[in-house]
Write a structure and sequence with these properties.
Among the domains are: 110 residues, Isoleucyl-tRNA Synthetase, domain 2 (Alpha-Beta Complex), CATH 3.90.740.10; 120 residues, no CATH class; 165 residues, Isoleucyl-tRNA Synthetase, Domain 1 (Orthogonal Bundle); 65 residues, Valyl-tRNA synthetase, C-terminal domain (Helix Hairpins), CATH 1.10.287.380. It has 22 helices and 20 strands. Strand 13, helix 8 and strand 14 form a beta-alpha-beta unit. It binds one RNA strand of 75 nucleotides through strand 4, helix 4, helix 11, helix 14 and helix 17.
Length: 680
RNA sequence: AGGCGAGUAGCUCAGUGGUAGAGCAGGCGCCUUACACGCGCCGGGUCGCAGGUUCAAUCCCUGUCUCGCCUACCA
């Protein structure tokens, strides 16, 4: 008794296989079976590969001409290969009484005939794995036919060696494992395709001797018998069979063109990881075979772009996006930036979940850049680019520029460094995010804001050209850093920026920024960080306590060291402007002011906001209590850590010093919070 | 079944041996003369689970669970 999901194929059976160790079927191996319909006689064979004794009845019918596994089995056991379907899916003469039936009809009738003869032994539901056409869902019928293959092993070997020797490397490197696994187990490549268009296979069959003649041009006569009646193979070549020639065929090969000499091999091949075998590995093999050199030195593989649910885009499913439509709606820059933002080196099984909201975010970013540039241009009426050309952080008198100018110059270098490093490592998302952060959070949120009031202040007219020049410098750097990610808007805006004599005609031919260590300024950055911290804390205090933006309260800053006093004293104007304050007093110590006072801590700096009248102390108390909880937790954690003798003994000096300093700061801040709470 | 990955804030994802970050989403307040495609502020995470190594683990090791991808197979 055998089980089958496809009864109709029994017409082509030429054996029944059982497992050699299966006690149920021991005596049957070698016996001959008579086919109930065709009358054909065939053996019961022992098949340890094909048969899983735990599955079904432990006996399997073998149809070598219509099943890939049975085909292999048929070769192993020298079984006849009986084709029971023709190319239209109709039963051939081999099918005996069923001849001429469509395969679907044949299935019904074979089943009925089995029942009629009393041979049916029941059935049960079974999830089968018969192949279906992806587009029309028709069952695919495996059949035997003559097709052309490329012998892959001799081609694979040099490619494996090239990767082993590092002539081509994968980014991320982990893909070389997958590559080796596939290449070491490579199968011959079937290049025949039964499509109605494409390059016809250059093989001709002789009517006289049936032998194939393979030639570059249409042959006059059969290479074997000289026969003149030749017919070309109907099949066409697999598309990848021409694609694997891409790296050199596109450059004029087989002619030794200038382009071929210049661009072969190329540097980076970039594609989705699903293309690794289809194309990348094959280009590598073809390149080594025809050009004797690898086609590219680096293969960058990114994850697949899927829809927002993580489903692979496919025309059949209808979840594809049309890049041209997206570009039409949101701009090519937005589309490009959105993809860059999401593109990091491929981790297997992960993908880029592409959604329109990413494109919309990128478009907002483009809008932001546009407006920032507009602001700068609006303030350049009296600006002379040539005057500023060689100045960056100090004036002709040798005097340093003001804090914001020195700060953004330093930040330009940091951003440039970060972006370049990320790009060199193929971490495109990180690079894109770094540009975004630099432009939005540093240039727009801080530098432009710090520039505004000073540009309008008649008392600072002498500073004006420095601020203007620095704004232009920052935008110039920003546009050039962003250019690979948003080529169109950056060119447009860059063209509008004032430039000194002799500047390049297009942003495309400017140099990509390189960090200049001369402008990296740690002291300036930490001073600015202090200003930012105090401003942020005051803003938070005001917002949480509903102090309207029209009110400009006086503030007292109690600091615990001279460094902070000097910095905050020196930049009271900036703090006052950004935090919308009135008078600012910075002091080392003093009695807490009486009356309507709001208190908050910026690290260990105590901020006392003095109001006309104080209303509800609830929000202030809640915030101070939250601070107290956090600070207490931090203090306990640090104290416990530092009390551990093994920590003191084994931890690096720098870590110890840092933690000790942090404990001291935390304790000081906590004491001030406690005092403020007591006063409430 | 074998191979390869991933599990971190509501979502999408960064990240580092020294007490966690972004974008978006959410809440509150603002038309503060570049931008409401905006500005300011706020909330939110025992970094899948269990062991181990270490002075110290989200990060290293082992096991485990879940999810995904690739390859093979499913009479």
């Amino acid at each position: 008794m055998v089980a089958t999901t496809r009864p109709e194929t029994m017409l082509g059976d030429t054996a029944v296989a059982v497992h050699p160790d299966d006690p149920r079927h021991q005596g049957k191996i070698g016996k001959v079976i008579k086919h109930p319909f065709t009358g054909r006689e065939f053996p019961v064979i022992a098949g340890s590969v094909l048969v899983d004794p735990k599955f079904g009845t432990g006996a399997v019918k073998v149809t070598p001409a219509h099943d890939p596994n049975d085909f292999e089995c048929g070769k192993r056991h020298n079984l006849p290969f009986v084709s029971i379907f023709d190319e239209k899916g109709l039963v051939t003469a081999e099918g005996g009484p069923f001849v001429g039936l469509d395969r679907v009809e044949a299935r019904k009738q074979v089943k009925a005939k089995i029942a009629e003869l009393g041979l049916e032994r029941g059935g049960k539901p079974h999830a089968h794995a018969v192949g279906h056409c992806q587009r029309c869902n028709t069952i695919v019928e495996p059949m035997i036919s003559t097709q052309w293959f490329v012998k892959m092993e001799p081609l694979a070997k040099p490619a494996i060696e090239a990767v082993e020797q590092g002539k081509t490397r994968f980014v991320p490197e982990t893909w070389s494992k997958t590559f080796f696994h596939w290449m070491n187990n490579i199968r011959d490549w079937c290049i025949s395709r039964q499509l109605w268009w494409g390059h016809r296979i250059p093989a001709w069959y002789c009517a006289a001797c049936q032998q194939p003649t393979v030639a570059r041009t249409t042959p006059e006569k059969c290479a074997h018998c000289g026969g003149k009646d030749l017919t070309q193979d109907e099949d066409v070549l697999d598309t990848w069979f021409s694609s694997w020639l891409w790296p050199f065929a596109t450059l004029g090969w087989p002619d030794q063109t200038r382009e071929l000499r210049t661009f072969y091999p190329t540097t980076v091949m970039e594609t989705g990881y699903d293309i690794l075998f289809f194309w990348v590995a094959r280009m590598l093999m073809a390149g080594l075979h025809f050009m004797k050199k690898v086609p590219f030195r680096t293969v960058y593989l990114h994850t697949m772009v899927t829809d927002e649910h993580g489903d692979k885009m496919s025309k059949v499913k209808g979840n594809t996006i049309d890049p041209l439509e997206v570009a039409q709606k949101h701009g090519a820059d937005a589309l490009r930036f959105a993809l860059a933002w999401l593109t990091n080196p491929a981790a297997q099984g992960k993908n880029i979940k592409f959604s329109m909201s990413n494109v919309e975010d990128a478009r907002r970013f483009a809008n932001k850049i546009w407006n920032a540039t507009r602001f700068v241009l609006m303030n350049l009426d009296d600006y002379n680019a040539d005057q500023f050309a060689d100045r960056t952080t100090e004036g002709p008198d040798g005097a340093e520029f003001d804090l914001p100018e020195r700060w953004i110059m330093s930040r330009i270098q940091r951003a440039t460094e970060e972006i370049n490093t990320a790009l060199e490592d193929y971490r495109f998302a990180e690079a894109a995010q770094a540009v975004y952060h630099f432009i939005w959070n540093e240039i727009c949120d801080w530098y432009i804001e710090l520039a505004k009031a000073r540009l309008q202040d008649p008392a600072q007219a002498g500073e004006r050209w420095k601020i203007q020049g620095t704004l232009v410098t920052a935008l110039d750097a920003a546009m050039r850093l962003l250019h690979p990610f948003m080529p169109f808007i950056t060119e447009e805006l860059w063209q509008k920026l004032p430039k000194p004599q002799g500047a390049p005609q297009s942003i495309m031919i400017t140099l990509y920024p390189i960090a200049d260590p001369r402008y990296v300024d740690d002291a300036t950055e930490s001073a600015m960080a202090l200003v930012q911290r105090v401003v942020a804390t005051v803003r938070s205090l005001r917002t949480e306590n509903n102090v309207p933006s029209s009110v400009r309260p006086k503030v007292v800053l109690n600091v615990i060291d001279d460094y902070k006093k000097t910095i905050l004293d020196g930049y009271r104007g900036l703090v006052s402007e950004q935090a919308r304050l009135g008078e600012i007093v910075v002091r080392r110590a003093g009695e807490p002011p009486t009356g309507a006072v709001l208190t908050a801590m910026a690290g260990d700096i105590e901020i006392l906001l003095i109001l006309e009248a104080k209303a509800d102390s609830g929000p202030e108390r809640a915030k101070l209590e939250r601070d107290r909880a956090t600070l207490t937790k931090d203090r306990d954690h640090l104290a416990k850590k530092l009390a551990n003798p093994q920590f003191n003994e084994k931890a690096p000096r720098a870590v110890l010093d840092k933690d000790r300093a942090r404990l001291a700061e935390t304790e000081a801040a906590l004491a001030k919070v406690e005092a403020a709470l007591a006063r409430l």
